[in-house]
Amino acid sequence: MNHENAQAGAAGRLMTEIAGSPGETACGPVVSAVALGKSYGGLRALDAVSLDIFPGEILALVGDNGAGKSTFVKALAGAQPPDSGEIRIDGRPVALRTPRDAAAHRLGCLHQGLGLVDALNVVENVFLGRELRTNVLGLVPQLDHRRMRARTIELLERFGIALPRLNDPVLRLSGGQRQTVAISRLLLDEVRVVIMDEPMAALGVEEGRRVLELIKTMRSRGISVLVITHNMEHAFDLADRIAVMKNGRLVGVVPRAEATREKIVGMITFGTLQ
Amino acid sequence: MPPAAVTARDAIGHADRRLMFEGLGLLLVVIALAVAFSLINPRFASATNLVNVLTQASYYIVLAIGMTFVISSAGIDLSVGSLLALVTVVGFDLIKGGLDPLVGVVVMFGLGGLIGCFTGTLIAYVKIPPFIATLGMMASLRGLALLHSAGNMLYGLPPSITWIGQGSIAGVPVPVIIALLFALFGAWLYNHTRFGLHVRALGGNREAARLAGVRVDLVEVAVYTMMGLVTALGGLIMIARIDSTQATIGTAMEIHVISAVIIGGTSLFGGRGTIVGTVLGAILLSMMTNALVIAGVDYFWQLVIMGAIVLLAVAISNVRERRIPTLAFLLRRGQAAGGRA
Description:
The complex is a heterodimer of chains A (274) and B (341).
Chain A: H1 3-19, E1 31-40, E2 43-53, E3 58-62, H2 69-77, E4 84-89, E5 92-94, H3 99-104, E6 107-110, H4 122-127, E7 133-136, E8 140-143, H5 145-158, H6 175-188, E9 193-197, H7 205-220, E10 224-228, H8 232-238, E11 241-246, E12 249-255, H9 261-270
Parallel strand pairs in A: 3-10, 3-11, 6-9, 9-10
Antiparallel strand pairs in A: 1-2, 1-4, 4-5, 7-8, 11-12
Helix pairs in contact in A: 6-7
Chain B: H1 3-7, H2 17-40, H3 47-72, H4 80-96, H5 101-124, H6 130-149, E1 154-155, H7 159-166, E2 168-169, E3 172-173, H8 174-192, H9 194-204, H10 206-211, H11 216-242, E4 244-245, H12 253-263, H13 275-294, H14 299-320, H15 325-340
Antiparallel strand pairs in B: 1-4, 2-3
Helix pairs in contact in B: 2-13, 3-8, 3-9, 3-11, 3-12, 3-13, 4-5, 4-6, 4-11, 5-6, 5-11, 7-11, 8-9, 9-11, 12-13, 12-14
């Protein structure tokens, strides 16, 4: 990390502190992004963005198209490592180069466009990349369909998710059902932090409402949620704090209690706190 | 409503009902065709001929199982015929030259696996589309086979090898036993192992699989390596059966193998397939070929018919998967009208 970035990082953190943190500041953040930077050719997609996520909070990330929201969450998810800056988990710097790294730190990401494999069924999608296996004759590993299925059902029940036909390809599920499958994937990992990129996009009203409820259930179980949304209603309904980005920079973070529509829209549009 | 109550009755495992029904439908088609052929020409129904059909189908079954994995990974391998030729002429030569048959067989598998691994590397890491990569390999490998044996016909294998193609255990031909065992292994690998799941995930949605932590590039190399090994096995059965080989063996074989997979119901677009379907598809094609031969149809016409069958199979699969927009629209409208009536 070069000097310039370090300064910008400090400034970013200061801004977060000014903007205020939720009640449990004593616990310290679960995840801290410190001065993350990322360029695509000449385009500065992320410019020294620093942001803390605290335990059991819902942090909404808003901003116009091209504000750098997706680039930011991809960095946290290990899908696209940043060029500069540092990610800390429980205060310790970590390298998140692949989605596997992120998962190993119990950081889960729900990708835009879902990231499900249509041709696979619900259980296979939930367990893809983290399959349970048994040994045939104590020698040859094979998939433990029975146990994966039982754990999927248990998980769905615990979070009050109803899904028909676990053996059907998810291709045949509705948008909302597919979204719950994608979320179930994350819950399975006992994630501490879930990052969601537009989880309610392209869902009907009723289905969107169910996903909102599910996100709140996750918070009540102590999971932190970082959610990108374009929908101001959702941001105000869900979030404990609202973070605003513009042109690759973090404009500021506002606690829900102090947030007004005008203030947030102003930040999105003009890129300043006032 | 607890989801468990709804789902507990479903079978355990990957089995998708629609695929199971399709498998059943295909079985009925195979039986119906067998009956039809027998009625047209009673010679078809003779026990010796049916055993002959199954024996002929055996190496196609083996190759088509490998191809099911390739196509499920959203790939294709056009180089099977050429690789089979290269592997068999090299193996044949070595064994005839006095090399221990077992070592010769090991060399065949080693060569097949290595070349498959190379093809897979071209596809996964050099990012050459499977169609082009294997098209290039198809030409190059055929050339190497021709360079190696200069168009000579090779024959005269030791009995220990020919037994693989011509022997029988309790009246069942060895190739049929090998094909059956390999089909069981293939079905297990496809449905019940992490490798099989990752192959289907790779073919279904490469990016989603990568994000889920699947090592997609490695899996892709493994799929083509497996295809290379399978080609060696198919080649071994083939040369053991006919006790000869030459550099032009397996010409146009890929069309037969790919057709068997597609007729079997595996999606050309990756992600979904069945091994049972592939086995039935291979048997169906061998039956057709056999019936055409018995009926005295010219080989050139057989090629024409084979090509038409492939095109028809893909068209049917596209209708089934509703990939043809206008047709899908008509089907939906038809169903809606049916619902109102």
